[in-house]
Amino acid sequence: MNPLHVRIGHIKFTNALPICHFLDKSDPEIEFIPGAPSDLNKWLAEGSVDAGLCSSLAYAELAEDFVALRGLSVSARGPVGSIFFFSKRPWEELNGAVIALPVISKSSSNLLKILLAETGITPAEYITLPSDDLPAMLEQADAALLIADDALYWSVQEHGCHLYDLGEEWNKRTGHSMTFAVCAVPKRLIEENPEKVRKIHRFFLEGKKKGLADMDAVIAQAMRMLGQTEEFWRTYFNKLRHDLDEEWAVGANAYFDAAYRHGLLKKPVKLELWGDEE
Ligand SMILES: C=C(O[C@@H]1C=C(C(=O)O)C=C[C@H]1O)C(=O)O
């Protein structure tokens, strides 16, 4: 195989569209494999893709062997608009509750565990369920976390729940931004084939540059995927940031520290940025 042939995993949901919509899918050297964050986390860990957006906490678990590409993430400082906790009871009454987590998430599920623990809430049980059907989740649980397109969809349906945005809850408690996804690359690949990693990095940054310069096209694609109005998507994408530098790393590192403190990471981890933005 051509040494510059690349296998890229990309998140198939609308939150990654500003980076992924304009990725040049015509390049025969680049193979695209769309998936949910849980798929990407697995593919990166087992080495079946060379690079890809994955849950920030999955990167943190692999941090000895992976770096995060500079300038690429799914982040928010405050409300994120697509990570929602739907609860039949108010937050402060969730002691002893059964909490449903979405099978596709790692960052947000663990963020919820951190936030509940830090506000003195001890659920009876966490269960992991498919997350495209909120009423089905709430038949088995007192509250359910949804992410990405499922969260966007169900947040505008009649659901009768208390609704909490985890980006907002994290920011209110800590003052930090939250990074939900990073673009991870194995250190081994940088040692073996730095040219290939530079190519992957340029490729993603180019996609993001085009996406941010043409949000009308990004929004049109989001509308094809999930409906809703142009205004809905403009408001949503204004909450998201897709950058990653030393400043955004502060929030990511605060999250990794909290995950370690709560026993959700085996070792303390600092985000390792790789590459230049230009
Ligand atoms: C902002 C989002 O972040 C996503 C949440 C993830 C997680 O919880 O593991 C992983 C990737 C992100 O793209 C979203 O789902 O809308």
Automatic annotation (TrEMBL):
<comment type="similarity">
    <text>Belongs to the MqnA/MqnD family. MqnA subfamily.</text>
</comment>
<keyword id="KW-0456">Lyase</keyword>
<protein>
    <recommendedName>
        <fullName>Chorismate dehydratase</fullName>
        <ecNumber>4.2.1.151</ecNumber>
    </recommendedName>
</protein>
<comment type="function">
    <text>Catalyzes the dehydration of chorismate into 3-[(1-carboxyvinyl)oxy]benzoate, a step in the biosynthesis of menaquinone (MK, vitamin K2).</text>
</comment>
<dbReference type="Pfam" id="PF02621">
    <property type="entry name" value="VitK2_biosynth"/>
</dbReference>
<dbReference type="InterPro" id="IPR030868">
    <property type="entry name" value="MqnA"/>
</dbReference>
<dbReference type="InterPro" id="IPR003773">
    <property type="entry name" value="Menaquinone_biosynth"/>
</dbReference>
<dbReference type="GO" id="GO:0016836">
    <property type="term" value="F:hydro-lyase activity"/>
</dbReference>
<dbReference type="GO" id="GO:0009234">
    <property type="term" value="P:menaquinone biosynthetic process"/>
</dbReference>
<keyword id="KW-0474">Menaquinone biosynthesis</keyword>
<comment type="pathway">
    <text>Quinol/quinone metabolism; menaquinone biosynthesis.</text>
</comment>
